[in-house]
Amino acid sequence: MMLGPTRPVPHVGAFARIKHFGGGSELGTVVAVQEEGRRLRVRDEDGELHEFLLSPANACFVSADSAHGPRLELLADPA
Question: What is the pTM of this model?
Answer without folding.
Answer: 0.87
